[in-house]
Amino acid sequence: MLCQICGKNDATVHFTKIINGNVEEMHLCSSCAKENKDIEFAFDFPFSFQKLFTGLIDSVQDKGLQEKDISCQCGLTYKEFLESGKFGCAKCYDTFTGDMDSLLKGIHGHNRHEGKIPAGTKDKIIQKKAIDSLKSELEKSIKVEDFERAAYLRDEIKKLREKTRDI
Amino acid sequence: MIKWLGGVGNEEDVVVSTRLRLARNMANYKFPELMTEEEAELVTNQILNTMRDNANPYRFYRIKDLSDIEKNVFVEEHLISPNLSERIMNGSFLISSDEKSTIMINEEDHIRIQVLLPGLDFEKGWEISSEIDDLLEGEIEYAFHEQFGYLTACPTNAGTGLRASAMLHLPCLSMTGHINSIIEGLTKIGLTARGLYGEGSKVSGYLFQISNQTTLGEREEDIIKKINKVVVQIVSRERSTRAYMLDKKHTEIEDKVFRSLGILNYSRIISSAEAMNHLSNIKLGCDLGLIDNMDPKEILSLMMDIQPASIQKSTNTIMTEEERDIYRAQVIRNNLINMEV
Description:
The structure holds two protein chains of two kinds. Chain A is mainly alpha-helical. Chain A has helices at 30-35, 49-54, 59-67, 78-84, 92-95, 100-108, 119-143, 147-166; strands spanning 13-19, 22-28. In chain A, strand 1 (13-19) and strand 2 form a beta hairpin. In chain A, helix 7 runs antiparallel to helix 8. The longest helix of chain A is centred in the C-terminal third of the chain and has 25 residues, at 119-143. Chain A is elongated. Chain B has twelve helices and ten strands. The mean pLDDT of chain B is 93.
């Protein structure tokens, strides 16, 4: 069925107006329906998939971020993100990160990437993991007062850090 | 014929095409939605410089340099996304000479690599798209997060950034209504079915696009394996339904096919929607061996050639809907006559 107003697009909004017993049926396309004053309640055109998933964000955190009017360095505010469901830059993933884990888990069923890693980044990640493991070893050595080992580990971490900077 | 349909593919009686799309962004730049024209230009130039020395030559187009008809033809031939065609200020794309690979620039993400192959071939598609990805990555620093993977404007694409899809021609599963339970089943295992032109588009000519819905948490090879397995199953169900109908409802199927052939051979006015349905029946007739003097791939190609923008491109004039419908009927008649072998 075509829209009654423009006669071009398919009618997707159907409504019945009853005033003093007079029944009037209207069949409109979404753009004509938007302009029609008879339809006063707010339509969401098209049904916003983005809102569906931003709704997955934990409501407590959501309130905190909204009240503080948090915005990312790219200029995107948290409120805008909730509206569009789209980030403005890579940093947004950290800025709005409070509950990114549960947002991504809600969308994908997972929150940890598996698969391809850019070759340059791969080395960095391996180094970072190595540093993390040396750090925890260092803490253990300090606890048991094995200072000789601790000094050795500290130097190793320093070396690895410098190496990472060069990548 | 549409260029990318060239070559021999697998399972071509049911699988029209395999498509892989990788979403990537450059580190240190805002995503396209928020970037200025200058930033968009810097991003575009870096990608162009990286691809310049490539052994396979790519053609480069800016959306703003294309007429409405020209850019819609690229959309109708599935070479670029509808979304890119609307990025008038900053959108552009590179396309390989065989038209099987496209690099879309400043669509929703800075980079969208698309590989489109005839028939079913996810492995080759992944190989080609990953190669292009490696090439770009050699020169460009990607926005990548240790935990979340490749970062994208929309969190629904984050992780691998991979959308793998197959376009299937499923006339018999549609006629019997079995398609509904298949679509329902797909969503339960993280896959989804869409119409001919992707997200939000209608199913036309019994053509369905099956793709993965989630992109994070599974390796690319696993995503591809899963969707490939499912597609193979659907192909075999479509084939068995075809065989059943050919056996039990032979005259009805024959009637459907030749009625469509009759309409297309003699009509003088036809809309793209009506033409798609009849061409779909004729393709089925070719695949079932009921019509043996036409190439089903030529029919598929014609399905894209008769879309609104493509129809106008051949005469290079802007037509009204009525004029298009008249001209379309003529194009189809001429093509069907020429097609007969």
